[in-house]
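Hmm, how's this folded?
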Amino acid sequence: MSTCLRALMPGDRNAMMNDKMKQYEFVSQNHEGNILNGLNILRNRKKLVDVTFVVEGREFPAHKVVLASCSEYFEAMFTNEMKESKQNKIYLNGITADGLESVLEYAYTSRLLLTLANIMDVLGAASHVQVFTVVDACSTYLEDHLDLENCVDVATIAETYSLSHLKKVVYRFICNNLSKFSQMPDYQRLTFTQVDCLLNAEFPVDCSETDILAIVMDWIRYDPGKRLQYASLLLSHVRLQEILLFDLQLLLNSSSFRELVCLAPQVWEDLAYKCSCLPVDQPESYTGLVSTRGMESSIIVVGGFNVNGVTNAISYYMPSARAWYHLTTIPHVDQCNYGTACLDNELYVIGGCFNQILHENIHPFGFRYDPRYDKWSTIAPMLRERCRFSLSVLRGEIYAVGGVSESGDTLLEETARCEKYNPKADSWSLVAALPGHRTQHAGAAWKHFLFVSGGLDGDIPCASLLRYDSLEDRWEAKTSMLSPRADHSMEVYKNKLFVCGGWYEEETSGSRTVLSTIDAYDIATDTWEVVTRVPTPRYHSGITILDGKIYMTGGFHSDAIFDRASGAVEFYDLENNKWGTIEDYPHEIWEHTCVTFYVPKGKDDLAVPLA
């Protein structure tokens, strides 16, 4: 029997099985490209094509299966009971030949060439035949080439083709550059709908609300015959309460305003009436912002400790969203016990300490964060490094008071030295020192006074209240708190100081006791009173005031080893004398600080992940 015909013996079968074990799968890296290239060659040679499009007298042969694979429009055309499914030649209206040519080129090659000259043709064709990857590419191209010269046209394109993301980008851009854009001729090309959208866009603007009113009036005055009919609606979007009465009066007495009064007396009488209803006792300034448009006052949590150790992360709670979000990160090695303050809606993080080879390093460096532009910058370092100190804003300057510094032999020591920072000059200068050493205390400013409460003098919590007069550069003692406090917070509301949180030591046992009351100091009468008791007493909590409510975030319940940290957030309503809660902070957190400032509403942030 020949070898090729003989029966397979068991050994032969094993050999074949071993051969199968050696099999491998071949995958070509170029197959998809080769297929596309082959189809494109067939198209160019007009081979196997089964449909021809006619646009503006030009013919475009193609393969139905290729077009259906990248467009639901073509899939429906060729597979449903439509008359085009049975036609070999189809006439397309409403698009250009150049636009369709670019879309077909993309379908067969995955390549797309966009220029300012062809963008409208390509976008129109891609939108018509629903090749959405090309539509997205056109939107990205317009976004990348957006400027003050073309923003009106891009806004119109975004609205025409329902490009929601591009529309958002355009209106954010215009708002960010509104001061300059409103002086350009293109501003007057805006339609009523676009001006109305601009005023309701809720994006930060680079001009004051006084300027917003003038900008609206200027748009109406450009063509009063057609635009006066929109005056009442547009003016209702102006936030008159944010305009200082002096500035408002100047504008109402201007020649441009009087010109419009003659054309539409009722509209301007209504505006004048609304102005007369504004409160006379307006604040001198509005939180340091030129306008609160597109911004919302939020609770900011800065740094602190969590189960993973110290963190430089900064998060915020936006009341309208009822959620916590990540904001930014302090641009420094992970640190703690720094001072935080807000001036002109910018966050200052100054000083603090960090561990290096089991040694606590204290530093004098400072950083400033602008939430509108999401940018950090450095400021001049303090004259002396310090941590566990207070940082307060007083009359446009920042005061650093007390704390812990390093002595010449690198040992830690408490300090009584104080200094202030001038943001315009970017420089620090010494002011009168505290009457004694102080650390882990609280500070708050009212008018031209700076108050410092409690803290540690050595290892002993104290109850003293000191007041610094910035006009006379001197400290004086005021009536002491009702009990000693360390690691607490002091907040100002109207004409009172409120001290919250903290701890003191029992005289007999020396054990640490968490304070359970919020006490108020009447600045006028120099007296203290207990306001309320905290539902969940804690220390090392982040405390701040927002809209007349004292918020307490996180902290330690006690010194117990287990279950002592918290992410709970409670607030006390000072006007209505009642407690409430909001969404917990997503992590257990302590030794952080809390402040409030305005954050852009349109930030594309991810929520802080749950622990």
About this structure: Residues 207-293 form one domain. Residues 1-5 have pLDDT under 50 and may be disordered. The chain has three domains: 29-145, 207-293, 295-600.
